[in-house]
Amino acid sequence: MQGVTTYYEQVTPPAKKRTTASRTAKERYLEAGLQVLAEKGHAGLKLATVCATVGATTGSFYHAFASWGEYTTALIRYWREEESDRPIAEASAVTDPVERLQFLIDIALRLPHDSEAAIRVWAEHDADVRVVQIEADEERHRFISDSYFAVFGDREVADRYATAAMYLLVGYESGTHRAPDTFAWVLQALVKQALDEAGVVIPTRE
């Protein structure tokens, strides 16, 4: 009997393991989610719409993500990594404080404003999304303040300009009539005012 038991233990096939989707496969769905948010808003973020945007089946989706909840959690964190953490890391590499302020304007202009507007609406209905959205805003404010502090050496003044910059960004993203040229102009005006106050000559941009 001992030998029979051992025999069956040896021939029993191992349980099948669920394969893991590649990072590239997951990113396709995450990028699609940001696109859906931009085009259809928070209310339009549905499984069928995301799959249609990718050109894939729901089966493929569930190979990449175990559930819709897992996907939406990954989506909001992906947005923060790509549109807050990564740009801040890029700006950190700019050592000259004045050039860094100019670089931050470029970042503000190229952010996915439609997606971010939808995320701000989404955050009003989902506490987990709101936590990440607030963290991203605070992270941005802190870095902008640090950049102005490098010019002024005064934290109170730096915080004031950082708050003004965030007001401009959030207001622009939440507005119904956007004028990119005007947004760029007002951001430049804010930086120029700060540099004038600090007695710094703004470099000419080619």
Task: Please outline the helices and strands.
Blueprint: H1 2-11, H2 23-40, H3 47-54, H4 58-64, H5 68-92, H6 97-110, H7 113-123, H8 127-152, H9 155-174, H10 180-198
Helix pairs in contact: 2-3, 2-5, 2-7, 5-6, 5-8, 6-8, 6-10, 7-8, 7-9, 8-9, 9-10
Domain HTH tetR-type: 23-83
DNA-binding region: 46-65
GO molecular function, one term: DNA binding
In helices, the fraction of residues equals over 70%
Spans of at least 5 consecutive residues with low confidence: 1-17
What's the number of helices?
10
CATH architecture: Orthogonal Bundle
Total beta strand runs: 0
Task: Describe the main β-sheet briefly.
Answer: none
Could you tell me the strand content as a percent range? under 5%
Strand/helix succession: HHHHHHHHHH
Radius of gyration: 24 Å
Under CATH at level 1, the class stands as Mainly Alpha
Number of separate domains:
1
Shape assignment: elongated
CATH superfamily: Tetracycline Repressor, domain 2
Alpha-carbon distance between the termini? 87 Å
Mean pLDDT: 90
What does this structure look like?
Residues 1-17 have low confidence and may be disordered. The longest helix has 26 residues, at 127-152. Helices cover 77% and strands 0% of the residues. It has ten helices and no strands. With 206 residues, the chain is an all-alpha fold. The chain is elongated and about 60 Å long. Helix 8 packs across helix 9 (155-174) and helix 9 runs antiparallel to helix 10 (180-198). It has a single domain, classed as Tetracycline Repressor, domain 2 (Orthogonal Bundle). InterPro entries: Homeodomain-like_sf, HTH_TetR. This is HTH tetR-type domain-containing protein. It comes from Gordonia insulae. Keywords: DNA-binding. GO terms for molecular function: DNA binding.
